[in-house]
């Protein structure tokens, strides 16, 4: 048995070289031990989108995200439809005091507010609203399609 400590942040060459193999071990572990379904969202199904109406990905997914937010709020928090319309969604989870910044030594995506979208079969099933800052990542809110609650997307998102 050989044990190796591999730097994950920032990713070392060893981490990058063994990522897929490590991920497959993780996925098998989750399926066998925690009984996760094989179709649980994967790394390739998570999209980080800047919260900006100037961003094409954000604009193209806005209606789907807002509709999912309303479905979540009504099912989980028992909000009325008027409590979770597009205006409420925008005010609560799209308007941010943070300014987008791309620092030379910062992450490739830059700093600011983001929607971390979880896609399955061409549709968004969860959105983690996060702020990426120079010394931390702040989880602001997570909402998901209640039809997929068996996937424990809140736990998955927190661990991710």
Automatic annotation (TrEMBL):
- Keyword Transferase recorded: yes
Keyword flag Transferase: yes
Recite the UniProt keywords alphabetically: Transferase
Q: Which residues form a coiled coil?
A: none
Q: Which InterPro entries match?
A: N-end_Aminoacyl_Trfase, N-end_Aminoacyl_Trfase_C
Q: Which GO terms describe its cellular component?
A: cytoplasm
Q: Which domain of life is it from?
A: Eukaryota
Q: Which residues form the signal peptide?
A: none
Instruction: Specify one Pfam family.
Output: ATE_C
Q: Which residues form the N-end rule aminoacyl transferase C-terminal domain?
A: 66-160
Q: Which GO terms describe its molecular function?
A: arginyl-tRNA--protein transferase activity
What the entry lists under PANTHER family is as follows: ARGININE-TRNA-PROTEIN TRANSFERASE 1 (PTHR21367), ARGINYL-TRNA--PROTEIN TRANSFERASE 1 (PTHR21367:SF1)
What name appears for this protein in its UniProt entry? ATE1 transferase
**Lineage in the entry?**
Eukaryota, Metazoa, Chordata, Craniata, Vertebrata
